[in-house]
Amino acid sequence: MFDFGYDISDFYAIQPEYGSLEDFEQLIKKADALNIKIILDFVPNHTSNESEWFIKSSNKDEYYSDWYVWENGHIDTNGRRQPPNNWISVFGKSAWTYMPSRDQFYLHQFNSAEPDLNYRNPVVGEEMKNIVKYWLEKGVAGMRFGSINYLFETDKDTFGGRFPDEPKSGKPGFNPDDYEYLFHVYTKDQEETFDIVTQFRDVFDAITLRNNFTRVMITVARSSIKTAVRYYGDGYHAGAHIPVNNVLIDDISKESDARDLKHAVDRWISYMPLGKPANWVTGDHDTSRIASRFRTELVDAFNMLVLLLPGIAFTYMGEEIGMVNGFVPWVDTKDPRACSTNDPVNFIDVSRDPVRTPFQWNNGVSAGFSTAAKPWLPVADRFESLNVANQRSAVRSHYQVYRTLTNLRMRPAFRLGRFESLAINPDVFAFKRWYNDDTYVIVMNLGKSYQIVNLTAFDLVFGQLEVEVSSVQSSRTFSDNVLATYLDLSADEALVLRMQV
């Protein structure tokens, strides 16, 4: 628990403070009865340094000795021991830590408590596939593979038996301890990674065939778009069902306008393989929430985007009610990335705790998330008014909009229909979804000023359209009519319109 579950000491067990294996089996059984599917987060790149595997490997146990990436260091001219090369951890500083028991360094692309597994040892790959099989046979509906693109490092044998230095990025503002100081050409997205992804997918498909229930494989890789879409597979060998698409996180910022949004959406659809499902996500446990990253008024617009674009929708907890980032002071900070700065003032620049504050169910103790007066992280301010209970009872709220959108996306136009997008002007983004003669236009004013637009810029959009969903700020409500040739939009207004035939 040094990194909140990403440092796993036993892949076959449940961490005791979360319950027992029997509790987990009951969870699966109860969820199944409610037609809810459970997906597990899976971290295949590394283990905890408290893992039995690592302890045995660090003591040169014959079987486990080669399960991790071990390398000799060197002594510099001042007589000080130095790591094998210049590789930097995602969390900053050297990606190598010295282990006296082996008189060697081990690689950790993340925290020093998270030693990287050695996938060039085929026994490691087989053991990880066995772990996937174990949990799928327990009844989980799928697994999300975090940091999949770090599994392999370059083959040092092609460099004379020593891992090469990575080149400097030349990016301004970074020092030699910062991850961004280097281009990570030898430690990410290696060719062998795509092969092991296919092998993992084979495990999923074998169990799917056995009981005719698809077990979904999700991969997360923050990579260039050309590399990211390779995780779908190569056309001959299947990859992940869902390689998570981060373009709405990585390519869209507060400074972006409708043209940037169109470019980001169209680019993913253009690069991904034909016949595969797209997917959309605007936030996760590492990314500032929409209400804080942009502004509260755009929450409904981004939920429309995620839920009504073609493909699969991911919602990070809290986005459906427009939660904001919480304030977590230094004394309550838990994120190891922030703690490692040892900086009680500027830690907030890297801390992920503000986006991990408890979900806000009601205005009670700890926002209804816990009966404890002080949960793991403090509840965000304004939870007394910004919570599910309040929004569920309100006539208009982010919750009501989100609920309507989830029902709307079941219609054929959104499940099966075609897609077209337009940046009508720098402030207004719109997209059309249609199936046979059922046509919808989703239009959102991302700017802070009043706009008048003509939706007949879309082919075969004309006449009157009826409001299906409107953002909380909108003065329009369900079944209101608007003209395709003249639609006035207030600042931040977002609408789902259905064309009348």
Inertia-based shape: globular
How would you write the strand order of the largest sheet?
12-13-14-19-16-17
Kindly, what is the distance between the CA atoms of the first and last residues, rounded to a whole number of angstroms? 58 Å
Rg computed from alpha carbons, rounded to a whole number of angstroms: 25 Å
Structural class computed from helices and strand pairing:
alpha+beta
* Low-pLDDT regions: none
Instruction: Count every helix, treating DSSP H or I runs of 4 or more residues as helices.
Output: 13
Average pLDDT over all residues: 95
Based on DSSP secondary structure assignment, what is the total number of beta strands? 19
The major β-sheet equals: 6 strands, antiparallel
Strand content: 15-25%
Helix amount: 10-25%
Structure notes:
It is a single chain. The chain is α+β, with helices and mostly antiparallel strands and 501 residues long. Helices cover 24% and strands 16% of the residues. The chain has helices spanning 21-33, 52-58, 122-137, 191-211, 225-228, 247-250, 258-271, 290-293, 299-308, 336-339, 388-393, 398-408, 412-415, and strands at residues 39-42, 70-71, 74-75, 81-82, 96-99, 104-107, 142-145, 216-219, 242-243, 279-281, 312-314, 418-423, 428-435, 438-445, 451-453, 464-470, 481-483, 487-489, 494-499. The strands form 6 sheets. The protein has a 6-stranded antiparallel sheet with strand order 12-13-14-19-16-17. Strands 1-7-8-9 form a 4-stranded parallel sheet, covered by helices on one side. A hairpin with a 4-residue loop joins strand 12 and strand 13. The chain starts with 20 loop residues before the first helix and ends with a strand. The relative contact order is 0.07.
